C-alpha cells in the first residue's frame, strides 16, 4: 500500500515539475515573440518612411538626370555654335551643368544609401517573421505537451497504472482471505480430527462404546471439512462461470447457500442479452458472492434477494437483505475486512458503478451497474 502511494506521489511530482518547466519555457517563448513583434512594428514603420523617402529621391534623381542631360545638350550646342555665345553664357552653362551634376551625384548617393537601408530593413523583417513562425509552432507544440502532461492523456495513463496496482492489491488481499479461510476452517477442523482420533485410539480398548461414538463424530467432521474445502475451491474459481455463464452460476451459489445456511435466497433474473466479457462476468459474480457472504455472516436477515438483469447495454444487479444493517461511512473509514473494499476495486476495473446503502436496523442494499459491451 505504502509502496503504491509513494510511487504514485513521485510520479505526480515528476509530472508537476515537468509541467512547471514547460510552462516557464512557454512564457519565455511568448516573451521572445512579443519583443520580436514590437521590433517588427518599429522596423515596418521605418521601412514605410524609407520607401517614401526613396521614391522622392528616385524622382529627384530622374529629374536631375533630365536636367543634367539638358545641361550637357546646352554645352554641346554652345560648342557647336561657339561664335554665337558670349563668354558669360558659356561660363553660366558650364556652372549650371556642374551644379546639376553635383546635385545628381549627391542624390544618387542618397538613393544608394536608402536602397541599402530598405534592403536591410526588409531582410530584418523577413528574419524576424521566420523567427515568429518558428516561435508560434514551438508555442503550439509546447501547449500540446503541456496539455498532454496535465490533461486527460496522462490521467488515463496514470489510471491504467493505478488499475494495474489495484489488481495486484486485490489479488494480494484475495490470497490473505484464502489463507484465513483455510486457517479458520479446514485447518482448525483437521486439528480437531487428530485430537478426536487420538482420544478414540486411547479409549478403544477399555471403552469401545465411547470410541465408536468418537469415530462416528469423526466421520461427520471429515464430511464437513470436505464441504468446507469444496466451498473454498468453488470460491476461488467457480468452474461453471466460463462454461455455463453468470445466471446458472449465481443460481448454483444461491442453492448452496439455501442448503448450507439459514438464510433464504430469492433470485430473480432477466436475461435479454449475454455477457461477452469474461472479466465482467467474474467481477459481477464476485460482488454477488461477497454480498451474500456478508448477509450470511453479518446481517442476521432471514432472506437475501438478488435481482440480476443482463441487458444489451448494462448488467444490473441488486442485492438486498432485511437484516440489521450497518453504518456505511463508519465502516468505510474504519474497515473491518476486505470484502466491501474489494467489491469497489473490482467494479472500477470493469468501469462499473456500485453503491452500498445501509443503515442500522434497516437492512442493506447493494446496487451494481456494469457496462455490457
Ligand atoms: N449485509 C450486511 N449486513 C450487516 N452488516 C454488514 C453487511 N455487509 C457488511 N456489513 C458490515 O460491514 C463490515 C465490513 O464488511 P466487509 O465485507 O468489508 O468485511 P468482513 O465481511 O468483515 O470481512 P471479509 O469480507 O474480509 O471476510 C462487516 O464487518 C459488517 O460489520
Ligand atoms: Mg465480507
TrEMBL record:
<dbReference type="Pfam" id="PF02518">
    <property type="entry name" value="HATPase_c"/>
</dbReference>
<dbReference type="Pfam" id="PF05384">
    <property type="entry name" value="DegS"/>
</dbReference>
<dbReference type="GO" id="GO:0004673">
    <property type="term" value="F:protein histidine kinase activity"/>
</dbReference>
<dbReference type="InterPro" id="IPR005467">
    <property type="entry name" value="His_kinase_dom"/>
</dbReference>
<dbReference type="InterPro" id="IPR003594">
    <property type="entry name" value="HATPase_dom"/>
</dbReference>
<dbReference type="Pfam" id="PF07730">
    <property type="entry name" value="HisKA_3"/>
</dbReference>
<keyword id="KW-0418">Kinase</keyword>
<dbReference type="InterPro" id="IPR011712">
    <property type="entry name" value="Sig_transdc_His_kin_sub3_dim/P"/>
</dbReference>
<protein>
    <recommendedName>
        <fullName>histidine kinase</fullName>
        <ecNumber>2.7.13.3</ecNumber>
    </recommendedName>
</protein>
<keyword id="KW-0808">Transferase</keyword>
<feature type="domain" description="Histidine kinase">
    <location>
        <begin position="286"/>
        <end position="373"/>
    </location>
</feature>
<keyword id="KW-0175">Coiled coil</keyword>
<keyword id="KW-0902">Two-component regulatory system</keyword>
<dbReference type="InterPro" id="IPR008595">
    <property type="entry name" value="DegS"/>
</dbReference>
<dbReference type="InterPro" id="IPR050482">
    <property type="entry name" value="Sensor_HK_TwoCompSys"/>
</dbReference>
<feature type="coiled-coil region">
    <location>
        <begin position="107"/>
        <end position="141"/>
    </location>
</feature>
<dbReference type="InterPro" id="IPR036890">
    <property type="entry name" value="HATPase_C_sf"/>
</dbReference>
Amino acid at each position: 500500500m505504502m509502496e503504491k502511494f509513494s510511487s504514485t506521489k513521485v510520479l505526480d511530482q515528476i509530472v508537476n515539475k515537468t509541467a512547471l518547466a514547460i510552462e516557464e519555457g512557454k512564457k519565455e517563448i511568448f516573451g521572445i515573440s512579443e519583443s520580436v513583434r514590437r521590433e517588427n512594428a518599429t522596423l515596418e514603420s521605418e521601412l514605410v518612411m524609407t520607401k517614401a523617402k526613396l521614391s522622392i529621391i528616385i524622382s529627384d534623381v530622374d529629374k536631375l538626370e533630365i536636367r543634367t542631360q539638358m545641361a550637357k545638350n546646352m554645352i554641346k550646342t554652345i560648342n557647336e555654335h561657339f561664335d554665337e555665345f558670349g563668354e558669360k553664357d558659356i561660363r553660366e552653362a558650364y556652372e549650371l551643368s556642374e551644379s546639376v551634376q553635383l546635385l545628381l551625384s549627391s542624390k544618387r548617393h542618397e538613393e544608394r544609401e536608402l536602397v541599402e537601408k530598405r534592403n536591410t530593413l526588409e531582410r530584418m523583417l523577413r528574419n524576424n517573421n521566420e523567427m515568429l513562425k518558428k516561435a508560434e509552432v514551438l508555442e503550439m507544440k509546447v501547449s500540446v505537451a503541456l496539455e498532454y502532461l496535465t490533461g486527460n492523456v496522462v490521467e488515463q495513463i496514470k489510471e491504467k497504472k493505478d488499475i494495474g496496482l489495484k489488481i495486484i492489491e486485490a489479488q494480494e488481499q484475495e490470497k490473505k482471505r484464502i489463507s484465513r479461510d483455510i486457517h479458520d476452517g479446514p485447518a482448525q477442523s483437521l486439528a480437531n480430527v487428530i485430537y478426536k482420533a487420538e482420544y478414540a485410539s486411547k479409549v478403544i480398548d477399555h471403552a469401545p462404546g465411547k470410541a465408536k461414538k468418537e469415530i462416528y463424530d469423526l466421520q461427520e467432521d471429515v464430511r464437513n471439512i470436505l464441504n468446507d474445502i469444496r466451498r473454498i475451491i468453488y470460491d476461488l474459481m467457480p468452474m461453471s462461470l466460463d462454461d455455463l455463464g453468470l445466471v446458472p452460476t449465481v443460481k448454483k451459489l444461491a442453492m448452496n447457500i439455501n442448503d448450507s445456511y439459514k438464510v433464504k435466497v430469492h433470485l430473480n433474473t432477466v436475461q435479454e442479452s449475454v455477457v461477452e466479457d469474461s472479466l465482467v462476468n467474474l467481477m459481477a459474480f464476485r460482488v454477488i458472492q461477497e454480498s451474500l457472504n456478508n448477509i450470511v455472516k453479518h446481517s442476521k436477515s432471514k432472506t437475501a434477494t438478488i435481482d440480476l438483469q443482463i441487458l444489451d447495454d448494462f448488467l444490473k444487479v441488486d442485492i438486498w437483505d432485511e437484516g440489521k444493517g450497518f453504518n456505511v461511512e463508519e465502516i468505510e473509514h474504519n474497515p473491518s475486512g476486505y470484502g466491501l473494499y474489494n467489491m469497489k476495486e473490482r467494479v472500477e476495473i470493469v468501469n462499473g458503478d456500485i453503491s452500498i446503502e445501509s443503515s442500522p436496523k434497516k437492512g442493506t442494499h447493494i446496487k451494481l451497474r456494469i457496462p455490457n459491451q
